[in-house]
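TODO from last week: model Myomesin 1b.
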Amino acid sequence: MYCHRSNVSFHGLILLCFPFPWKVTCVPHSNVYVKAYPAPFTQEDHKIYHLSARTSCHWVLHSVFREHYRIMLIEHTDPQIYENEEYHKCMNEDSLMHAPEFVIKPRSHTVWEKQCVRLHCTVSGWPDPRVVWYKNNVTIDPMARPGKYKLQSSYNMHSLEIDRCDFDDTAQYRVSAMNSRGELSTFASVVVKRFKGEVEEALPMPRHGIVSEYGITFETHIVDGFGVSFGREGETMSLGAMVIISPNLARYQPEVQWYRDDVLLQPSKWCQMHWSGDKATLTLTHLNKEDEGLYTLRITTKTKYETYSAYVFVRDADAEVEGAPGAPLDVTCQDASKDYVIVTWKQPAVDGGNSILGYFVDRCEVGTTHWSQCNDTPIKFARFPVTGLVEGRSYTFRVRAVNKSGMSRPSRTSEVVAAMDPADRTRSSAPWTGQIIVTEEEPAEGVVPGRPKELEVTEATKNYVVLSWKAPGERGHEGIMYYVEKCVSGTDSWQRVNTEIPVKSPRYALFDLAEGKAYRFRVRCCNSAGVGEPSEATEATTVGDKLDIPSAPGRVVPTRNTDTSVVVSWEASRNAKELVGYYIEASIVGSNTFEPCNNKPVKATRFVCHGLVTGESYVFRVKALNAAGLSECSQESEAIKVKAAIGGGIPHGVLPEGGVTNGWLFSNPLTLPSPTPPYGISVLECVRDSMVLAWKQPTFIGGADITGYFVDYREVINGVPGKWHEANVKAVSDRAYRVSDLKENRKYQFQVRAANMAGVGIPSLPSETFICEEWTIAVPGPPHDLQVTEVRANTLVLLFKPPVYQGRDPVNGFYVDIKEADAEEEAWRGVNEKAISTNYMKIKILKEGVTYVFRVRAQNKAGVGKASEPTEPVLAETKPGTTEIVVDIDDDGVISMNFACSNLTPDSKFVWSKNYKEITDETRITVATSGEKSKAIFNMPAEDDIGIYSCAVTHTNGESSSYTLSAEELKKLLEISHDHKFPIIPLKTELAVELQEKGRIRFWLQAEKISANGKIEYVFNDNTLSQGEKYKMNFNKDTGVIEMIMESLLQEDEGTFTFQLQDGKATNQSSLVLIGEVFKGLQKESEFMCKEWHRKQGPHFVEYLSYEVTPECCVFLKCKVGNIKKETVALWYKDGREVKGDGNLTFTEGVLNLEIAQISKKDAGVYEIVMKDDRGKDTSTLNLTEQDLMNEMFSHIANSSTALKIQSTEEGIRLYSFVSYYNEALQVTWHHKDSAIAFTDRIKSGVVGEQLWLQITEPTEKDKGKYAIEFHDGKGGLKRTVELAGQGETTSASQILSGLILVLLFSDRARVAGGLPDVVTIQELKALNLTCNISGDPVPEVVWLKNEREIVSDDHYIMKFESGKYASFTITTVNTTDSGKYSILVKNKYGTESADFTISVFSPDSKK
């Protein structure tokens, strides 16, 4: 059964009874329960399945079952089911569409000849998929062979029936299902067997030798082939070739394959293939520049294959607007998601004579013909993110280029791409059987999704920025969408980008950003439950192109090829990033007009330009391109005249191995040339009647492997050579041969010819003249057959064979010599000081870019023999694409060495060697090769396998590598192999426990690597736990986090918890013991957190009550509260009595304050605040003890004190310091010379306002020294010191004493001259005015104090200071609160003086 959209919303019961298997697909975001049980069923057999139907239930039934079910629908409307209907419509648009999936796959068959076979499958998908059958990747057409194939499709069941099978039907069959959401294929094989001895009379009897189909070896020849072709966009082109297969059997059909640039072509609307029995045809129905390339026809039988290749060029169609550019090409779609896709393309070679300003991207929804433009302004970057797609719908795209002349033609449309989650493309579900009962219940409460993860900027250009992220782990049971926010770097002002519609895909492209400005980005998730917290912000990203246009290619070199073509080579662009390829342009000398040679970029640095005019002279230039644009043109090449090369030229893309060497070329690619001559003939040994010769391999081996060599010799008499004679009738495979039946002391010359399948090549040049005389020297002869392999920038390996002539004693070592290729003979130097015993050596002293030659000398007991012939010059460089042998250990612990080569030719072979001897015995090593990769597998690794292993690839340009297996490396590999055979799932963290909200207990661990098929068992005290109300299990397959959550811990939960993991063969487990004090502590903390959670459901304290003493010695009691509302009440208490509000109580932004001004001892006590409303209450208490409070105040007073200063007065010397606030409880100690001062009539201390002073009357020499005032705050205290002695800035005591008289006589310090009474008694409600005289120069500062606190002038207290002489103090209306001690304090720079008086206020009644 499949869920699908319906127009009827329901909430009730559905009963469906089915006699056949059914498949259930659930609609996301719903709440439907399905009970399934077989029929006939029992109550014990039922199972519960949870489906989705939050807004409505949608069902579409398989057509195959429509006659076999009945449905009962009891309608019961529930208004709650529509609560979030509109939201879910947005979230789940077309979510029921899904890609094809094979419910039942076709299985492989092995049948006897002349039997019938049937392949069948069942396919699901919405919309209904289209099914196509293939044989060996060729579409099966029943009409091509009527009666042979029968295709049937009925109710999503599809079958292919093959009638009367024969050997031709042995093949791999593929069935492909495709709809707008994607495509899926599956394979099955059919093997046709024949009874022994049964052979059709029409077929020849099998022959011994080559094993092939029907016992026949087929010879295939491709004749009358297609040549280099030219077409124009929009035209139709056909390529064809006649194929001759012998013997000719009417029923035999070879495998015919077409390739473009080595990519296999499949039949499509753009290309069609046809085989008529003797001719293969490829038709390109509508040419586009994407069709340009090297086309290869490959005809394959089971014994061999033949290929034929030629290049097809496609020119631009005429522009609709003169001067407009050519159409872009290769439009592809990448990274497709629910509402987003990246469109890429390649820039055209033709710009119409004006620079391309940019590109427009168009899209078209499948099923319509309407094209809509995706970008308002042209973009220069050849990549563009298209957003705003509708989930579940399919689209095609095209691109147009624009310059100042106009718009180009549109490109070829892209492949169809579906807007869907990539995970949905491969999601599958299994069939099931039984009767189904579907019920619906209330939707579950939504969960606000968590933060998105791994947000990053994946692409940044000056036009747009692309973000990508991962969905959060906490997302509930419904889908999520996203809001994207941005802010300018350096600020914290976030702005939502997609304010109207959230995006569905975890990717987003931002446009309209200011170029050059830096931004940060973050993302929020949302669903019906609300908007989640933002992700971590990205790093600052500056808007601008990060990909640079490639640099211009280097030197361009043209080479003659044919009468109409030239081979052009060039140096690659340096440091080019994401290079797409190159465009080559040609111009007839003097015309100053360049035309493109290719309209599709090529990645190689060599190209054959066809279609040139014979006899004309051309110059060439090259441009490189990537997504950022086209580079500047390279420098023009030298002019070259189009004329055929001596060898006839080469076809495009076809070169003999090693390229053009020694002038040898072949002009017909269908004819295999014979090899070029060998060279470098030398003598390895000479006896009385025979000589052993050696020679070097030809520089060009032809079109096939060399099968052997033929040696000829002739006698030279008196300098006149005679006739040539054959030395060997049968070809020899080695490059050394003993020529026998010679005559002693006669002179001879030799020549050698190489042979391959094409025949015997021309002979080499005659060798030097050698005398046949027996060697009697004691030292060995020269080594031979030197070969260089594994060439790198600083190393290479030299292989050689030992000398044939041993000398008097056996050879016991070799020396290798080296010199630069162009150096003199005297430059030879030895590589090894000590002789080596092996026939190979790795040379590690090369310099990159230098060309070297090498030779080898052998030694025996008699000495060192003659040097070998030098090697050919070898350039020390690591060629691009060079690979090395990689050691791999698979999941079964099998150790293998792997080597890959991407430069294979059809004749290439991988050759594995140990210690540079080819491995032919597979007792210890098994070699397996597939395509471009080969591996050597150790059967049973042991010490016998220690050695150097190498792999060389034939018919390549020296592709080879080696690997040294030492004893230590073998031991290491065996340990890893053991771990793979008996694997353990690695853990990032062991099993741990943590407490979550509401006191929940979470047991969790994280596996470092575990697949989605991993299984987890949760065990407590050897008992397996299962999902239920008490235990909630979860396994996050993306992060490897495994968790189990319990709501609370009970006494019976004390014990050992274990998580047991299994992933295939790998296992692991982790345990956690919770017993004794550990368990009790965790249980207690869990209960506390649970209570805390319930406390926080009402008004509660986020920060409990605390206090702070200000520098003004005021005390603030403060706390922070949460979850409050208007009705929440806050009550303050001190020592159990409520503190009335007096204007100091504030309640803003969840913070409560209570200010206590002019703190004193009476303010100590227990303070309490109660928060309450209808949801509950919470209490916070603070014990403000007297000592702590006063000490805190004393500390503030001490810290506010000024530096201790000295002042001369009439009486003597005064030391003083000011504080910001003074309290009579403050303890102060004066010190002289670190001893406390004992006060007398001569030395006194006191306080005036905020001034603390020490008066020394009539000071003497004994009074000088260090003075200090110490403030006591119950902690460490604070001291202020001053020196009454010394030089410099400190005034000495003698100076003060000598200046004291002057101070007394002339100092104009501040004074209170008089006029103030000692005591004033006044009746209440009367007015009081007091006046006194003030003197001093400069004019003193006047301050009035009451009870040691400064009085501020207002309507009640009026204080005046007039003419710098008269100070008055007025109380407008006296009341009883005005009673107290009053003072006037005057001060200037010369001193301070005060006068005190007391005011006593009485009422008339009290007086009586």
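Done. The helical segments are 85-91, 422-426, 967-981, 1076-1095, 1186-1200, 1293-1306, 1404-1407.
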